[in-house]
Design goal:
It is built from 7 helices and no strands. By secondary structure, it is mostly helical. α1 crosses α6 (about 150-160) and α2 (about 65-85) packs parallel to α4.
Length: about 180
């Protein structure tokens, strides 16, 4: 949801240049939401923990913007790779993620740093997965030549129905998934 669901539109354009620009629009939205969420944590983190009724999570709130950023970009990059049918590389990225997550979590767990390893493993896994997929994007798209502010705006307007019609479904799905996790 952090990308405005524009990542779903990456598969639609006929030209790669348009796909790169819609990916950039999604990336701008992800980055903006991550920065805004960081500002909210910095400015209102204590109040948020008061509202939630759990002061122990204050330091953990700083991981939310990082996770939003990395997860949003992972989804965007996955669609860009999917567009070029780089299924093997998408799978390799998944292996990188799983290996990094497991190794980081076990390493931190053995060093007795408590639950920090779970979050750190998640973050490290997305960093490695994103690096793999980003390398593919630069290898398979002419990104420098394709990007322009005008084209990004044009694609965002052209595919504005993606956020209009899929954001609520994405939020509902995220909410129902969380409800299942709670049960």
């Amino acid at each position: 949801v952090s990308s405005g669901r524009y990542e779903l539109a990456i598969m639609k354009p006929l030209g790669d240049s348009d796909a790169v620009n819609i990916a950039a629009a999604a990336g701008i939205i992800v980055s903006t939401i991550a920065v805004v969420s960081l500002l909210l944590v910095v400015l209102f983190g204590k109040e948020l923990t008061d509202v939630i009724g759990n002061k122990e999570i204050f330091n953990w709130l700083y991981f939310v913007p990082i996770t939003v950023f990395l997860t949003g970009w992972f989804n965007i990059l996955t669609y860009l790779n999917n567009r070029k049918k780089l299924y093997k590389d998408i799978a390799i990225s998944g292996v990188y993620k799983s290996t990094a997550m497991g190794a980081t979590q076990v390493s931190v767990g053995l060093s007795k740093l408590s639950m920090n390893g779970l979050i750190l493993g998640h973050i490290v896994s997305f960093i490695l997965g994103n690096i793999k997929l980003l390398n593919n994007a630069f290898s398979n798209y002419n990104i420098k030549a394709s990007l322009s502010i005008r084209s990004i705006r044009k694609m965002a307007v052209k595919y504005k129905k993606f956020p209009q019609y899929t954001m609520l479904a994405g939020l509902a799905n995220a909410t129902s998934t969380q409800e299942l996790n709670i049960l």
